Amino acid sequence: MFCTLLVVGVLVGAAYVYRHIVVKGKRCTSQAKLHGKTVIVTGSNTGIGKTTAIDLARRGARVILACRSPQRGQAALEEIKSESGSNQVVFMQLDLGSLKSVRSFAETFLRSEPRLDILINNAGVYLQGRTADGLGMMFGVNHVGHFLLTELLLDRLKECQPSRVVNVSSMAHNFGKIDFDCLNKHKALGLGTSGMEKLQVYSDSKLCNVLFTHELAKRLRGTKVTCYALHPGAINSELARNTSTLLQMLLKPMTTFFFKNTVQGSQTTLHCALQEGLEPLSGRYFSNCTVREVYAKAKDDAAAKKLWEISERMCDLA
Predict the structure, then answer these.
(1) What whole-number distance in Å separates Cα of residue 253 and Cα of residue 146?
(2) Which of 126, 202, 228, 285 is catalytic?
(3) What's the pLDDT tens digit per position in 65-92?
(4) In what order do the strands lie in the sheet with 285-287?
(5) pTM
(6) Quick check: is 202 catalytic?
(7) Rounded distance, CA 297 to CA 203, Å?
């Protein structure tokens, strides 16, 4: 009986430690105030994007909510204003699955907003299919849309330097690979639709985020614009909303107990956006508010340059 109680006690203790130390994670400790600063957060109508926007608005920033759905974007706008107590929050429509929409957003923003101090490329999808431009959905939304958005806004970021670009990636990038032949032939990272194939394409798109950050940092040398990629943690959010109902039901107990909530999940994004002294770490990858080493494939100069050049061609920038 004693042994049984001891085992149960150890398991409960281990679960507590995992929940409160591993899952909960570190918090952004920056006390930075952002009055007079402007921040764009993509996908900020839900999940960690919305929580990030609330925190930035509380710090005094002018926050641009860049979201696809006008209905959901407007609803988030009112909620973020209420939660933050700030009226310096603006909704602007942005569909990252349409290069035309990305260009329209950038034109509207540059015409109406004189500053851009922080660009947070947060939005992401876990969904196969095609974008309006015929790109693979996860490649198009998770990488190419943000690539074009960043390129179009880079001059404004340079005008307002020191400034930052924050790319929300995932530890899934560790399992990613980039099939450049498939990209050139099919404008997609992969064509499969099974569960494992979709997960592989998602991982590939997250590797694109890390390689994009690596190459962007090289191209920004000599400026005071810096960039960072990050893993926010396993988040109990809406990313899996496009999976089957059965899978969502099976995941529910795990996401409730073992996944971070959106406040916990936003901390590394905030750290990369705000923490003082990160400039020498431009181009690096962060997790749990800490810089991390990545596999060789995630800092491969040749692959990063090749991905950049393909992305430029697909955006008609080359």
Answers:
(1) 33
(2) 202
(3) 999 999 999 999 999 999 999 999 999 9
(4) 89-93, 62-67, 38-42, 118-121, 163-168, 225-231, 285-287, 290-292
(5) 0.87
(6) yes
(7) 13
